[in-house]
Every structure is written in C-alpha cells, then in structure tokens.
Design goal:
7 helices; alpha+beta; three-stranded antiparallel sheet; six-stranded mixed sheet; Lambda Exonuclease, Chain A
C-alpha cells in the first residue's frame, strides 16, 4: 500500500534545506555585511520546502522562462503549435544569400503567464535537433519500499531519447556538475526501470542565458540501479521523518496519499 507520494522537486527542496548552511557560506560566507544571516536563510529554505509540499502557487520569472523554452523545443520536435502559450516568429529583413531583400526568422517569442520570452532561432533548433525523434513529457512512476512504507515516486521526463532520459534546464549561470545533488537523474531512471524500461543514463541539457549570450551544456549521469536505489531509500526515509515531524503544517495531504 502506497503511504507517500513524492516527486523529484520535493526532494530537491529537501536537499536545499539540508544544504542551507553550505549554500549560505558559499554565497555570503565571505561577506562582511551579508543580506541575510545563516539562520534567516535556513528559515527561508524551510518555508520554501513547506510551500512546495503544500503546492503554494509560485510566480517566478526564471521558472516561466524555463517552461517557455521547453515548450518551444517540444513544439519544434513534434511539428505542432502550442496549446500552453502563444509562440510567434520574429523576422528581420536581410539580403544574405540571395542579394534580394527577404524576411528571415531570427527568433521565437513565447508569451506565457503574462510574460514574454525571446530565444534566438539558432539555439532553439540546436536543442530540437539534438532531441530529434525523442518522446516529450513522458510520465513515469515507480514504487520504492522504505522502512516507513511504500513510496510512489513519479514525474514527467522532458525528453526520452533512445536509452537516456533528459531534462532541459535554463539558468543565468552554469558551472560544471551544477545539478549533481538534484534528484531527477536518480528518480526518473528508477521509475522507468520499475516500468520495465531500463535505460543507460540521464542528461541535464542546460541553456545558460547571460544577457544576449546563449551557451549550451550537457551534464550526463550513468544509471547504476543498486547505487541509485540505496540513495533514494536513504533520502526518502529522511524526508518522511521530516514530513511526519511537521505533519500539522502540511495542508496538502496528497503527499500522504490522502
């Protein structure tokens, strides 16, 4: 019997809470006048985690930008129009290649959640070409036994291509192995294996946006079933202890399979 329903971003929020001291020291540890104390930052991470668990609606431009770019890539792969947002082509007049003026598509503009995001056509095609033939937004789930009962792990994989699962990320700053403490590259391969689809690994495919400069990066992880199951069991059991310790503050009972 399933006792808990958990998806990767909840585990990411829990990991961020566990690492609050490490992250505070990384960002503010060398500052003479930090904008927030270590205790304030820990409380902020705690509240962010509770908000995720309780599904408090968030209005974040960075998240919307990622959603917009992901949808553009999915639409190009499938050759379809979006049902989530308005996507328009941006043209400019050029004579390159023909000597005669013509309208050339230089970017794609997505309007989502009352925000507008523009991405160069080249970077959109680069990602879409990389995922040619992929299946987009694949739902997966798997049951993980723990000492506190069975956990249903679930979520949507951005792209499933051959023997790898992929997640598309947008960020304003990328450093190598930025997502190593994330849980998508563990949860999704485990879930696929539970459904009878063993894959070789997982990739984060990252678009870094710094002003008008766009760079792409790939962060790969091999899938080692026994190691991943051990790691998932450990983090889920600790997360369950957190949930039970703060059960009275959790208003969305779906996480308790209720």
């Amino acid at each position: 019997m399933i006792k808990y329903n958990i998806y990767p971003s909840l585990l990411d929020g829990y990991q961020n809470y566990l690492d609050s001291s490490i992250n505070w020291n990384r960002f503010w540890g060398n500052s003479d006048e930090p904008s927030k104390t270590e205790e304030e930052y820990e409380r902020e991470c705690f509240q962010d985690l509770l908000d995720k668990i309780n599904r408090v609606p968030l209005d974040k431009e960075a998240a919307d930008k990622g959603t917009a770019f992901n949808e553009i890539v999915d639409c190009i792969i499938a050759g379809r129009k979006s049902e989530k947002m308005q996507i328009d082509k941006i043209y400019e007049t050029t004579t390159i290649g023909t000597g005669k003026p013509f309208q050339n598509c230089v970017a794609l503009k997505a309007t989502y959640n009352k925000r507008t995001f523009t991405f160069p056509i080249g970077i959109c095609k680069e990602f879409a070409d990389y995922f040619k033939g992929a299946v987009s937004q694949v739902y997966c789930e798997g049951v993980l036994p723990t000492k506190y009962g069975d956990v249903l792990l679930y979520g949507f994989i951005d792209e499933l291509l051959f023997d790898k699962a992929h997640d598309i990320k947008t960020t304003s700053s990328y450093t190598a192995w930025k997502y190593r403490k994330g849980w998508q590259h563990r949860v999704y391969p485990y879930c696929l294996e539970q459904q009878g689809n063993v894959i070789a690994g997982f990739e984060y495919n990252v678009l870094e946006i710094k002003g008008s400069k766009y760079s792409s990066y790939t962060e790969p992880y091999n899938y080692i079933p026994s190691k991943v199951k051990e790691e998932l069991t450990d983090v889920c059991e600790r997360f369950i202890e957190f949930l039970e310790a703060h059960r009275e503050r959790i208003t969305d009972k779906k996480i308790f399979n209720n």
